[in-house]
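Hi support team,

I've been running sequence recovery on a batch of backbones for a student project. Most finish fine, but this one hangs at about 90% for roughly twenty minutes before it completes. I'm not sure whether the input is malformed or the queue is just slow. I've pasted the structure tokens below so you can try to reproduce it. Let me know if you need the job ID as well.

Thanks,
M.K.
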């Protein structure tokens, strides 16, 4: 029977239909695994025994299995009733694809690791119970969906309508029945494990084949849990949103052959985008010409097309060397793009795999900060580059060539700005005096400074540099994970973003690495009191000395921290800890209007 399960799982894992479902692509990362289905039992034994610590004899898996069995049997009875009378009329059956066999294998090992203290039978029962909890809940709600108001509301959250509508069941009937059958088979196999456990109380010599069966039990449990993982994935895909398919239909207008088997950067925007919005993508386009598995498509989002808008479209299209969607009408999947991907009018660049999995909901954040260094801007690239501590240089290098030189030469640089002109003037005078201090000169400490909001010649910036600087900080903010314990770099970025609307703020960097940042008044106090702590430099150096003194100052001067997170820029964190005291921050809702078109921006002088 287990061999039958193994063959069915192989089919479930290998089936695919990318035009109908959004599926996931996971790269094979283990050299040890060529195919789960060709691995020897000995190899599987070696892998899974490493997860097994000992068996908890007090766990009552028999009672749990009775409950799980009842849940799953009832669920399958509901499935039979719901799909009864639904027949396929010249519509291709949906075949579903689990992420892939290596992922299924790794998921199974992860489950076995979690259950390392349980007996082999208990491991299988607990895995089945976890699946039954979700599977049974879904089908109970499906049964009550049309007759109970609460079930109807819960059903929307569980995506029940996406599967039980007649039109969907027509297409997915066979896949649902296959899943139901596989669940039944898996349940019967796990029931056999219980029989093996009971027979193990007898002398193996009295029962032919029992010894072999017990020796093989760990491998059988492995396959049972892998089957459960495959069932869970198949169920998830069956109720998945059809937005991926709607987008596939929209992209038919862009010669679908050129997109087939490609990682696609989908550039969503209106027709009011700037030259900078286009120029920032050109290095990415040049890279896609080298990396043939990537391509870019512009998908203009326009509520109502007019002759004037069509002319703007043609003008923009002529400036874009990549593919453009030519469709003067409603785009399929627009609701999905707005609701699920949170498109709100500003340009966004969604990266999807050949199978339709979203790898980055808005790669523009990474591109604005790191440029082509972060290519291909997928999750793996984002994780790697998020550990980078030399980040300030990437934000300021385009301000002026002299700043890029300072960064390369690893000079100490004060970047500062704010709304209080008097405080900014005072800071400029004090930091100028610090840079020319005889002690600093004698120690060969080279200090430079730049006021963000003014040009390097001291002239007013008129918004170009300032807007791009804070836009870069916001993009950097959204490349970080703020829902976990944050690292020092993320904490520094959170602090910096909180200073955006303050009277003054300042950053001290050494080259491209940030030494410290703070409210303008606290950094200014450290600079003003230099004579009191300068001797520390002889022992610890300027960098460590400045940071230690600033930390002490921040304990005596407290400012409220306020983080304004623009939701249009990307994914806003659910909650935030204060980057200074680490307490949970209060949440407020505010609204802002600058009385201008949000998609209209000033062009940097270098791009005019």
């Amino acid at each position: 029977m287990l061999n039958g399960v193994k063959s069915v799982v192989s089919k479930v894992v290998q089936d695919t239909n990318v035009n109908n479902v959004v599926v996931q692509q996971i790269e094979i990362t283990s050299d040890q695994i060529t195919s789960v289905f060709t691995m020897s039992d000995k190899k599987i034994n070696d892998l899974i025994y490493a997860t097994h610590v000992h068996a908890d004899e007090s766990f009552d898996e028999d009672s749990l299995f009775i409950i799980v069995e009842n849940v799953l049997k009832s669920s399958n009875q509901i499935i039979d009733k719901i799909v009864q009378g639904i027949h396929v009329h010249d519509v291709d059956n949906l075949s579903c694809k689990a992420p892939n066999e290596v992922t299924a294998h790794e998921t199974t090992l992860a489950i076995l690791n979690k259950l390392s203290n349980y007996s082999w039978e208990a491991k299988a029962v607990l895995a089945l119970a976890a699946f039954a909890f979700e599977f049974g809940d879904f089908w109970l709600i499906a049964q009550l969906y049309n007759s109970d108001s609460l079930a109807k509301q819960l059903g929307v959250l569980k995506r029940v309508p996406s599967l039980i509508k007649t039109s969907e069941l027509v297409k997915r009937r066979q896949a649902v029945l296959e899943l139901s059958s596989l669940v039944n088979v898996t349940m019967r196999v796990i029931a056999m494990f219980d029989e093996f456990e009971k027979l193990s109380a007898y002398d193996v010599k009295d029962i032919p084949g029992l010894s072999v069966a017990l020796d093989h039990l760990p491998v059988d449990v492995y396959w049972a849990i892998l089957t459960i993982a495959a069932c869970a994935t198949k169920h998830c895909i069956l109720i998945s949103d059809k937005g991926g398919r709607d987008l596939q239909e929209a992209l038919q207008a862009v010669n679908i052959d050129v997109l087939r088997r490609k990682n696609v950067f989908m550039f969503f925007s209106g027709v009011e985008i700037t030259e900078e919005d286009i120029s920032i993508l050109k290095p990415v386009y040049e890279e896609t010409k080298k990396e043939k598995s990537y391509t870019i498509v512009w998908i203009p989002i326009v509520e109502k097309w007019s002759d004037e808008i069509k002319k703007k479209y043609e003008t923009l299209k002529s400036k874009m060397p990549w593919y453009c969607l030519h469709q003067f009408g409603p785009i399929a999947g627009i609701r999905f793009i707005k609701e699920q991907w949170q498109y709100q009018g500003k340009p966004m660049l969604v990266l999807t795999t050949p199978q339709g999995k979203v790898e980055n909901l808005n790669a523009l954040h990474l591109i604005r900060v790191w440029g082509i260094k972060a290519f291909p801007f997928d999750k793996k690239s984002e994780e790697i580059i998020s550990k980078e501590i030399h980040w300030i240089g990437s934000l300021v290098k385009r301000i002026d060539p002299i700043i890029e030189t300072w960064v390369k030469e690893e000079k100490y640089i004060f970047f500062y700005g704010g709304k209080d002109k008097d405080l900014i003037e005072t800071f400029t005078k004090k930091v100028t005096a610090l840079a020319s201090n005889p002690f600093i000169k004698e120690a060969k400490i080279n200090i430079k400074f730049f006021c963000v909001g003014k040009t390097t010649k001291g002239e007013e910036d008129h918004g170009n540099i300032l807007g791009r600087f804070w836009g870069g900080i916001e993009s950097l903010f959204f490349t970080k994970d703020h829902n976990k314990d944050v690292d020092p770099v993320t904490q520094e970025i959170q602090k910096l973003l909180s200073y955006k609307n303050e009277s003054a703020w300042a950053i001290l960097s050494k080259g491209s690495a940030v030494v410290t940042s703070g409210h303008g008044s606290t950094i200014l106090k450290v600079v003003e009191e230099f004579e009191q702590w300068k001797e520390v430099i002889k022992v610890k150096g300027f960098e460590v000395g400045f940071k230690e003194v600033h930390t002490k100052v921040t304990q005596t001067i407290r400012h409220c921290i306020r983080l304004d997170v623009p939701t249009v820029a990307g994914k806003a964190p659910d909650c935030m800890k204060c980057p200074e005291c680490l307490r949970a921050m209060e949440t407020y809702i505010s609204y802002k209007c600058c009385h201008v078109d949000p998609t209209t921006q000033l062009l940097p002088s270098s791009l005019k």
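--
Follow-up from support: It reproduced on our side and the slowdown came from queue contention, not your input. Residues 1-16+24-252 form one domain. No action needed from you.
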